[in-house]
């Protein structure tokens, strides 16, 4: 028995009855999918034939249906007739307004059957479900990357082609992905609708507010089943799990380096082998390959340093910097080299150290015979040829080749000594000075002569000592080079 629904015409009623009877007379001869009307079959077949008869007169882009073209035409118009009653935002489409309104109500009717996480929209739940699967059927023909969705592959291919079809109507900057453009447009607005009720900080995106609140609550909902370590974000947990395995399944075809995580490989590939920098600072124009780098950079303009060390009250722009800094107090070194057993306080230090076990130097200077294991070392080296010193001191005007050299120099203008010894409470301006000083207390001598075995707490001592064996004459220099 059917529900008594009223329809405008007999033809509309006939179409509606297909819902109940499941009669579908029109079958696609390409994929056997069936449809209730001939018109829907005709539209569907265009997917297989790539027939796009409806073309935009403004930009030339073509579509399979007139309704898709009609929706697209609104992108060429600034008319936003659908306004939100709760905030100043307005939208071009009623569906966009409907999606936006959920951000005010907090309603999340769509739940994941696997982990219980709830979402405001069904499409977001569908995307989330892919996180529980490692299946990536869409592979790039030009590089090793693969993707869970066809749209992900389509967006990635623009990295190789250089295509950037999404242009900002404010500044003209173009992007390869519509989401990149959407995130970029927010930088042109000061509107931050998501406010923290504990510290009054506000955010442009709700996810940023959710993550921020965990600073106050201490909540770390994602924990590792192997070691129990907990994290504020699921992505951080996924990356951490790889540290329990020596497997590095993601190999770069360009330079033969391999990585434990897809995000590590993706970060390496974009930095070392492409020049894509889709995230641009609206204040100074500097662009970045990743959104988190732009977010971190923006704090240099605002002066914001929300993460404070409990031991010495030093503040940081990024929580990861605070975690690394706190290890100078605890002397924690969780990253261990699988070849020689040496331990490091950060993954980046371990990665740099790992290159010492390899002779490969893929990055070669065009001006001299020198080559480097890491691209950043080549970039710094090239500045010596060009005499480029982009980092200038705002106090005395002195300029430097590297940002870290400027940072170290800035301390000379202050009496601040943030690095304190736990053994004797002597304090230092630089962390490296504290590291060297600690060896007086611990007796650690990490540098040894490979000829006679003599060891020392300082690299410079061993460098000078080796000349006893090699009979090498010391070279005079106006610059003192000290070793760790």
Automatic annotation (TrEMBL):
Please state where this protein is localized: Nucleus
Checking InterPro entries in the record gives: Znf_C2H2_sf, Znf_C2H2_type
The segment(s) forming the C2H2-type domain are 26-53, 54-81, 82-109, 110-137, 138-165, 166-193, 194-221, 222-249, 250-278, 279-306, 307-334, 335-362, 363-390, 391-418, 419-446, 447-474
Q: What is this protein called?
A: Zinc finger protein 347-like
Q: Write the lineage as a comma-separated list.
A: Eukaryota, Metazoa, Echinodermata, Eleutherozoa, Asterozoa
Annotated Gene Ontology cellular components are: nucleus
Sorted keywords for this record are: DNA-binding, Metal-binding, Nucleus, Repeat, Transcription, Transcription regulation, Zinc, Zinc-finger
**What processes does the entry annotate via GO biological process terms?**
regulation of transcription by RNA polymerase II
What organism does the record attribute this protein to? Acanthaster planci
The protein's GO terms of the molecular function aspect are: DNA-binding transcription factor activity; RNA polymerase II cis-regulatory region sequence-specific DNA binding; zinc ion binding
Outline what the protein does. May be involved in transcriptional regulation.
Pfam families named among the record's database cross-references? zf-C2H2, zf-C2H2_4
Instruction: Give the family per the record.
Output: Belongs to the krueppel C2H2-type zinc-finger protein family.
State if Acetylation is listed as a keyword. Answer: no
């Amino acid at each position: 028995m059917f529900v008594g629904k009223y329809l405008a015409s007999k033809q509309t009623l006939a179409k509606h009855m297909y819902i109940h009877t499941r009669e579908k007379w029109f079958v696609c001869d390409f994929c056997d999918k069936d449809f209730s009307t001939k018109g829907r079959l005709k539209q569907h077949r265009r997917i297989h034939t790539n027939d796009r008869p409806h073309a935009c007169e403004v930009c030339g882009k073509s579509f399979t249906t007139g309704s898709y073209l009609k929706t697209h035409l609104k992108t060429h118009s600034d008319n936003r007739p659908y306004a939100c009653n709760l905030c100043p935002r307005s939208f071009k489409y009623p569906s966009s307004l409907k999606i936006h309104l959920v951000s005010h109500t907090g309603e999340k009717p769509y739940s994941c059957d696997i982990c219980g996480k709830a979402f405001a929209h069904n499409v977001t739940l569908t995307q989330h479900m892919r996180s529980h699967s490692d299946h990536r059927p869409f592979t790039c023909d030009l590089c090793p990357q693969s993707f869970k969705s066809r749209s992900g592959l389509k967006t990635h291919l623009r990295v190789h082609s250089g295509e950037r079809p999404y242009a900002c109507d404010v500044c003209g900057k173009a992007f390869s992905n519509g989401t990149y453009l959407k995130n970029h447009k927010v930088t042109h607005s000061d509107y931050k609708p998501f406010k923290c009720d504990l510290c009054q900080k506000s955010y442009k995106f709700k996810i940023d507010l959710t993550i921020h609140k965990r600073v106050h609550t201490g909540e770390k909902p994602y924990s590792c089943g192997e070691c129990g370590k907990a994290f504020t974000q699921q992505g951080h947990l996924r990356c951490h799990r790889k540290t329990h395995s020596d497997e590095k399944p993601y190999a770069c075809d360009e330079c033969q380096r391999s990585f434990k995580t897809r995000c590590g490989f993706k970060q390496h590939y974009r930095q070392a082998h492409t020049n894509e920098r889709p995230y641009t600072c609206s204040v100074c124009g500097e662009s970045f390959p990743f959104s988190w780098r732009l977010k971190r950079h923006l704090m240099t303009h605002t002066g914001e340093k929300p993460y404070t060390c409990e031991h010495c009250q030093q503040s940081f722009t990024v929580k990861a910097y605070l975690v690394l800094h706190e290890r100078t107090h605890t002397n924690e070194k969780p990253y261990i080299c699988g070849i020689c057993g040496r331990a490091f306080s950060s993954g980046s230090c371990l990665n740099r150290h790992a290159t010492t076990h390899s002779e490969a130097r893929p990055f070669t200077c065009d001006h001299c015979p020198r080559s480097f294991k890491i691209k950043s070392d080549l970039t710094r080296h090239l500045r010596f040829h060009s005499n480029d010193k982009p980092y200038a001191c705002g106090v005395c005007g002195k300029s430097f080749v590297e940002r870290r050299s400027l940072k170290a120099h800035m301390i000379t203008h202050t009496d601040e000594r943030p690095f304190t010894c736990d053994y004797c409470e002597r304090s230092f301006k630089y962390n490296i000075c504290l590291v060297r000083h600690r060896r007086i207390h611990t007796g650690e001598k990490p540098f040894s002569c490979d000829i006679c075995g003599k060891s020392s707490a300082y690299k410079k001592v061993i460098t000078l000592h080796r000349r006893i064996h090699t009979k090498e004459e010391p070279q005079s220099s106006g610059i003192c080079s000290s070793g760790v």
